[in-house]
Design goal:
Distance between the termini: 23 Å
Oligomer: single chain
Number of helices: 12
Strand content: under 5%
Mean pLDDT: 80
Number of strands: 4
Shape: globular
Helix content: over 70%
Order of helices and strands: HHHHHEHEHHHHEHEH
Radius of gyration: 19 Å
């Protein structure tokens, strides 16, 4: 499938501009979406703690959802699946690794115990469902059912006051919903859609000219672009000494990327799972997921040497992707 409506780039400089502009608009859209959706939800009477662990967590996955959906429908399913696999691996190797280099991070026990198993379950279920070479509507429905269960679990624990902190968002419990928040929410959607189109068009035009496949593009450049909000937020949190947000960002994002994004994609436009994905990318995803949980559980701390190891592992992964 070709992305005909977006085929407007005429040269490398314009393609690069589209790529960088796409990343910028994705970041802006994600920030606007988190803030406006949070204010609207609280304004309509939803508990701020519940907003923090459900609406905010889902909103931070919006870049992956928009890019993967537009890419899968407009270009090919390798883009959507590659984006999620690449994003989840980058979240662990690149985001956690870079954050640990900035400052060693103590692990919040509640985040690890309550969310860590869901991160592993999501990755393992994705691998099992994809072993037959496709992810169809039934597979997507199963992922979305697990998402509903996870969200219900978060809702229940937030109502009990047992909130595992995963997102650094200031929520004013006295806020009221306004028309302005609704307009900002719509603007966030426009930014996300425009950013998705720019990132996809710029990256595919640039890399296809050098013989790179859609899967490689999705696993690397597009995955990096959609993981940038998590990278920026986590590194800033590490600088501030708020490690629980860095780790919570990664765990929450990886759960929602698989359950929400792949779930929606599989229902809307069934995905083909290439043999190379089954034999290489799936094992790497499981390896990074198990490795991250193991590091957190072993000493309740991610040290600078651990950060170097995570970044090194990510660099090796990218190296083996090169044709």
């Amino acid at each position: 499938m070709s992305l005909a409506p977006l085929a407007i780039a005429t040269g490398p400089l314009l393609d690069l501009g589209l790529l960088l502009g796409g990343i910028l608009f994705l970041y802006l859209g994600a920030e606007l979406l988190v803030n406006s959706a949070s204010k609207l939800a609280v304004g309509f009477g939803i508990n701020p703690a519940t907003v923090g662990v459900t609406i905010v967590a889902f909103a931070t996955t919006a870049p992956e959802l928009f890019v993967s959906t537009v890419g899968s429908i407009g270009i090919g399913d390798d883009i959507g699946l590659g984006n999620i696999l690449g994003s989840n691996i980058a979240n662990i190797g690149l985001v956690l690794g870079a954050s640990a280099l900035v400052r060693p991070m103590n692990v919040n026990r509640d985040v690890l115990m309550k969310h860590g198993p869901f991160m592993f379950a999501a990755a393992a279920l994705l691998v099992v469902l994809g072993l037959d070479g496709s992810l169809g509507a039934l597979d997507g429905a199963l992922l979305l059912a697990l998402l509903a269960g996870f969200t219900g679990y978060l809702f229940y624990t937030s109502q009990q006051g047992e909130v595992a902190v995963t997102e650094e968002v200031e929520i004013d419990d006295s806020a009221s919903a306004t028309v302005r928040d609704g307009v900002v929410l719509l603007g966030a959607g426009v930014c996300l859609l425009g950013g998705s189109m720019g990132l996809l068009e710029g990256s595919t035009n640039l890399l296809r000219a050098y013989g790179f496949s859609n899967l490689f593009i999705g696993l690397t450049v597009i995955a990096f672009g959609t993981s940038l909000p998590e990278l920026a937020t986590s590194v800033v949190s590490a600088f501030r000494g708020e490690a629980e947000f860095s780790i919570g960002n990664v765990i929450g994002s990886n759960i929602y990327n698989v359950l929400a994004v792949i779930g929606v994609l599989a229902v809307v436009d069934p995905l083909r799972v290439a043999p190379s994905v089954q034999s290489f990318h799936f094992p790497v995803l499981i390896g990074f997921t198990v490795g991250a949980i193991g590091l957190m559980a072993a000493s309740r701390r991610i040290s600078r040497p651990n950060g170097v190891a995570l970044l090194g592992g990510y660099a090796v992964f990218v190296y083996f992707l090169l044709p």
